[in-house]
């Protein structure tokens, strides 16, 4: 089987979990290679996500590593056999890989939790709002690259709007709601979009008031993605070079703690809805 030219975040995560099982068993790659009639280089490629792995091999490796966590083994086997080619594949070669990785990660999520400080969350943005943000951050983008970015962002909403919608809770700072990324019309429509998604049950929204005492989280924006089991949860953070995917348990624990702390600093959903409604009237 030829090596992949690009490993998706999901493929990398499968390889990472297999490496963690191997290391927990105290085995070197060369020791495992003999079991699969392979080489240590091929084992490394598999653990980096560049080489595929079958369900049968996942289960053989788990047995060799003395892993007795049946739920984890089944989840990894499912990742190995998943051949989903979602709508995001249409943008491969058109947009940077992080766009596809983000959409695929959201597609497989059991729940989504997000904290945003400076912008309305991407999953709730209107096309005009998204276009204004992309244009400001990347003013040199030609229309041929700008339009696919906006379109991709709009299509991501399917994860919270479809028949099998993923539960989504977001904490939005008042600063993000008040910032006019475009004119009044665009910003008013954006606030109305958030209200519409709340009313349709597509999102649980909590507002963090700007006058909240003791709030030191102004520099924190993140998405926490639930996996099939907690060990396979994922954190996403925007970085200057793109989206950073977080899977280390120590960092995931920190993100969970941060979310709960910031949730405690936010208004209840009903009060948040009323708050956004008042802002809409002010525009």
The coarse silhouette is elongated
Straight-line N-to-C gap: 58 Å
Q: Which class of secondary structure composition applies to the elements?
A: alpha/beta
Tally of helical runs: 13
Order of helices and strands: HHHHHHEHHHEHHEEEEHH
Give the integer mean of the pLDDT values: 94
Give the strand line-up of the largest sheet.
Answer: 3-2-1-4-5-6
Q: How many runs of DSSP E, i.e. beta strands?
A: 6
pLDDT < 50 runs, ≥5 residues: none
Amount of helix: 40-55%
Biggest beta sheet summary: 6 strands, mixed
Radius of gyration: 21 Å
Strand % is 5-15%
* Oligomeric grouping of the chains: single chain
Protein model, in words:
The protein is α/β, with parallel strands linked by helices and 283 residues long. The protein is built from 13 helices and six strands. It has a six-stranded mixed beta sheet, sandwiched between helices. A hairpin with an 8-residue loop joins strand 4 and strand 5. 33% of the residues are buried.
Give a short synopsis of this structure.
By secondary structure, this protein is an alpha/beta fold. The protein contains 13 helices and 6 strands.
Notable characteristics:
283 residues, alpha/beta, six-stranded mixed beta sheet, 13 helices, 6 strands, elongated
Secondary-structure blueprint:
Elements: H1 9-24, H2 29-33, H3 40-48, H4 55-64, H5 70-81, H6 97-107, E1 112-116, H7 127-137, H8 143-155, H9 158-161, E2 168-173, H10 174-178, H11 184-199, E3 204-208, E4 222-225, E5 234-239, E6 242-246, H12 249-264, H13 269-282
Parallel strand pairs: 1-2, 2-3
Antiparallel strand pairs: 1-4, 4-5, 5-6
Helix pairs in contact: 1-3, 4-5, 7-8, 11-13
């Amino acid at each position: 089987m030829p090596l992949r030219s690009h490993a998706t975040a999901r493929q990398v995560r499968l390889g990472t979990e297999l490496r963690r099982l191997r290391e927990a068993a105290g085995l070197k790659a060369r020791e495992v290679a003999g079991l699969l009639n392979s080489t240590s280089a091929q084992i490394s490629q598999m653990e980096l996500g560049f080489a595929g792995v079958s369900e049968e091999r996942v289960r053989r490796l788990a047995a060799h590593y003395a892993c007795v966590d049946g739920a984890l083994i089944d989840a990894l086997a499912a990742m190995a056999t998943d051949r989903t080619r979602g709508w995001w594949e249409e943008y491969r070669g058109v947009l940077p890989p992080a766009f596809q990785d983000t959409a695929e990660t959201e597609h497989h999520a059991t729940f989504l939790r997000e904290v945003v400080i400076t912008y309305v969350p991407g999953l709730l943005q209107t096309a005009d709002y998204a276009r204004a943000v992309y244009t400001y951050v990347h003013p040199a983008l030609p229309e041929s690259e700008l339009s696919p970015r906006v379109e991709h962002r709009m299509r991501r909403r399917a994860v919270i709007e479809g028949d099998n919608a993923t539960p989504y809770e977001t904490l939005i700072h008042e600063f993000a709601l008040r910032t006019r990324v475009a004119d009044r019309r665009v910003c008013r429509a954006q606030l109305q979009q958030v209200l519409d998604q709340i009313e349709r049950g597509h999102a649980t929204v909590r507002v963090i008031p700007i006058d909240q005492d003791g709030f030191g989280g102004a520099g924190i924006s993140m998405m926490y993605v639930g996996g099939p089991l907690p060990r396979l949860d994922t954190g996403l953070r925007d970085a200057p070079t793109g989206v950073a995917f977080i899977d280390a348990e120590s960092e995931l624990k920190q993100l969970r703690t941060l979310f709960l702390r910031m949730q405690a600093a936010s208004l209840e959903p009903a009060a948040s809805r009323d708050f956004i409604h008042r802002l809409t009237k002010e525009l």
